[in-house]
Write the structure tokens for this entry.
Amino acid sequence: MIWWTYQQLRNRNSKSRLAAIEKLAAAGGREAVEPLLFALKDEKAEVRSAAALALGKLGDPQAVNGLTGLLRDADAGVRSSAARSLAKLGWRPADEAERMSLMVATGKMPQVSEFGVSAIESLEVTLKTGSLEKQLEAIKALGESDDPMVMAPLLEALQKGDASIRVAVLGVLERFSNPATFDAVAGLLQNEEPRVRAASMAAAAQCGGAKAVPALVKALGDSSWEVRHSAVRALGVLEDVSAVEGLCRVLKDSDHDVRESAAHALGRIGDARAIYSLVLALVDPENSVRRMAEGALLQIDRNWDQTPATRRAMPELTAALESQEYWVRHSASKVLERLKLAQPEEKPKAAAMPAPEPAPLVAPLPAGKVPAASAGINATGPQRDATLLILTGMLQDPNPYLRLAATEALGRLRNQEAALSTA
């Protein structure tokens, strides 16, 4: 029977080979060990895995050498089956290499990273052949190493089609902040998966610095809020003034998380050109946005409420009083009240002083002298001329009665002159 089963392990049909392994495991005995060890070299991973589990079930120490070799198998499932059977056999690693292989096979990736450079190859194998879960663990383990050799397997994994793998690798590259990886990261800024694009924004900012700003500003118009949010946060980290205009536009984004992050980023940049847009954000429907905008204004200028940019926003703030949303109206009212108190009071213009009256040509006479002056109208020659001059000067006197008396006297004087001219 053993001989016939042994022959079945050479059958071209993998199902026939699997059936033969089941029969060997059921039969048991030392005679089954050798054909099962032969099956450990099968081209099919499922056959190797089944043979490894069967050897563990038999519990024969002869299987140890063959099973330890499978700890470095290209297939994660085979490695796991070998590790389980070795545990049943009571096997313990003899050196660091075997311990590391066992940890990889059992998925203990964090512990693998403790072996330093020697662990990279094992983790790289996991990245190529392990399950999604094991690959993610391997990426995390590689990210905990500071050896530059980890870059090669990480960049290779970055080219894989699975979005989860790419996002995990981008997270590691973001922490590494290596400028040499910028081009590889930038290649994913236009990826079809929104979560990949979002992860690449943060990584590009850390790896490329100012080189990433144009692409990040362009991403502010992405169709995915997740991508816009990531781009805004990345620009806030870079604090590049060339992003101010784009971030001001995003203060009107449809997503409140994006608007809030934009206000935060503008505060970090600290450019006064953002004051106008941030003042308008003080009447945002969302409280978190309003609070962030106020904080950003204080970061830019503690006297923001007295700036020309703020005064320029007054018409729009006033229009917000007519909004259909309660919190917009309420916020606009509070902001306008604050701005009214903050504006410096205009000093009242001094009343125009009346123009000084022209000085009289002749000093006015005291009231008691008026009859005497009036009496001079009957005089002739030089005395008459002096009387005329005095009366003319009295026309400028502040006393209205004197002015009236002078007017009457001059009138009589002219009547006399007219009578003399007709005589």
Observations:
- The CA atoms of residues 276 and 308 lie 9 Å apart.
